[in-house]
Amino acid sequence: MVTDQSAPPAGSVDAEPREECGIFGVWAPGEEVAKLTYYGLYALQHRGQEAAGISVADGRQVVVFKDLGLVSQVFDEQVLLSLRGHVAVGHCRYSTTGSGTWENAQPTFRTTAAGTGLSLGHNGNLVNTAELLERSRAAGISVKNGATTDSDLICGLLAANAADKGMEQAAMELLPTLSGAFCLAFSDESTLYAARDPHGVHPLVLGRLERGWVVASETAALDIVGASFVREVEPGELLAIDEGGLRSSRFAVPEPKGCVFEYVYLARPDTTISGRSVHATRVEIGRRLASEHPADADLVIPVPESGTPAAIGYAQASGIPYGSGLVKNAYVGRTFIQPSQTIRQLGIRLKLNPLRDVIRGKRLVVVDDSIVRGNTQRALVRMLREAGALAVHIRIASPPVRWPCFYGIDFASRAELIANGLDQDGIRRSVGADSLGYLSLESLVAASEQPRTRLCMACFDGRYPIPLPDEAMIGKHLLEGLEKGVAGAATPVMVNGYGAEDALQRP
Fold it and tell me: Is the bond leading into 321 cis (omega within 30 degrees of zero)?
């Protein structure tokens, strides 16, 4: 049985994009699994600030509570106390596929023909969504009213097959047919499952509690709930955890292609990926950036918080003093309150404000993680000059982003990416900096300490490790959806989170 205890809110959520999604799952009889999941999601909040949800199962039923907003906005003590059981799945969402509606919040849920429940959380993006949609239609599986995500398609297909074959066997048959990036945490009434795509594009880790097990998008979430790190969920692996213990099955041969942008920006600095500390990687990036692009300056400052470790490394290698020249408002995130036009015009000042006494009269090296459209850096340079900076040298802790991501990160379309239309000096002039330097791809790979062959760097080099559908097929399905809607859905299913025009521009 599945019970949905939440309802769509009256307001709408700010649509400015963030990263991707965070998933968390726990199997722990005797523990307050809802609270463990709440704190796990809190640790993963940076991965998605649009919506949050938790499902809890007690052996008899699956109960789901989800809503738009931050984890702390969606859940309170009373709600968490009502979610009782021994297995839980949690999700914090930013929409890379489907719109930012309540219906698309996760965990998504389905009932099987046998009346059992299925709750599923997904991080990543599939590239064969159109194929899965056709398969669902052929099998008579309807799109859940209002849902427009690849995650709902996965859940529907899994639930349809589980009635006859059992959840584990249904997963072993479905997972090999999914193409793209996916980390999944899902459960029925008694068992927690976790799966990672054969390329292991995004991280998924396994942890041990005294009385149970945890799976999470990042090791930092294990630390928060007191779980000890056991290992990464392997690419192409399905885990099942119940009273019989932990079982591991292989549904595909692993072909590792971990997302290098996790090291640049997505993951928390206190996370470890493939045995490499994210913080140590970013400090090393800064050191290499100083070697590749030195500057004659008085002070190195980061764009907080993602630029901080690289700025530390840059200062260490260059000998230029490190300082805090920008103050970040830690409470600016998803909000139901739309800023007024007057406030909106202030733009970046909602999040960053200069320390004028630190900046005035200084030649600055400003270290940021990446440039996508260039709007943030343009506003930042202007703000620093107004605060009295004599020179602003921008240093970027990654190569130019020239290609969109189809595997779960919401970059702009290729036409909107500033590095796709301008050379480096053109970008420098566009943002108004005195100089501009990007880290080389070779140095980024070296800083990650991962073999180049095990990394996905498509956003930098345009080489997509997972084949993408041809342009015509993407456009065909998207246009059909836009014209007709899908099985009564409020908005059309989207492939890869891009509209038809964007999809047709992809490489």
Answer: no
Would you state the pLDDT for residue 409? 85
Task: Indicate whether 496 belongs to any domain.
Answer: no
Domain count, the chain: 2
**Is 342 found in the same domain as 221?**
no
Question: Which of 230, 257, 284 represents a domain boundary (last residue)?
Answer: 257
Checking phi first, is residue 180 left (phi over 0); if not, alpha (psi -120 to 50) or beta? left
Binding residues for Mg(2+): 306, 368-369
Pick 95 or 342 by higher pLDDT: 342
69-91, pLDDT tens digit by residue? 999 999 999 999 999 999 999 99
pLDDT tens digits, one per residue of 18-32: 446 999 999 999 999
Q: What is the pTM of this model?
A: 0.86
Under 8 Å between Cβ of 125 and 96: yes
- Both structure tokens of 201: 């594009």
Token pair of 463 as six digits:
């080489």
Active site residue 92: no
The answer to whether residues 69 and 87 touch, using CB atoms and an 8 Å cutoff, is no
**Quick one: 209 and 337 in the same domain?**
no
Q: Which domain holds residue 83?
A: 2-257
Question: What does the alpha-carbon distance between residue 432 and residue 27 come to, in Å, rounded to a whole number?
Answer: 52
* HEC letters along 430-452: HHCCCEEEECCHHHHHHHHCCCH
Q: How far apart are CA 39 and CA 214, in angstroms?
A: 12
Using an 8 Å Cβ cutoff, are 414 and 506 in contact? Answer: yes
Mean pLDDT across the chain = 86
With 80 as the cut, is the pLDDT of residue 442 above it? yes
- Residue-level pLDDT at 480: 39
Residue 174's φ and ψ, nearest 5 degrees, are -80, -45
| Annotated binding-site members for [4Fe-4S] cluster | 259, 405, 456, 459
Poorest-pLDDT segment among 135-139, 141-145, 274-278, 392-396 = 141-145
The CA distance from 284 to 278, in Å, is 10
Do 174 and 40 fall into the same domain?
A: yes
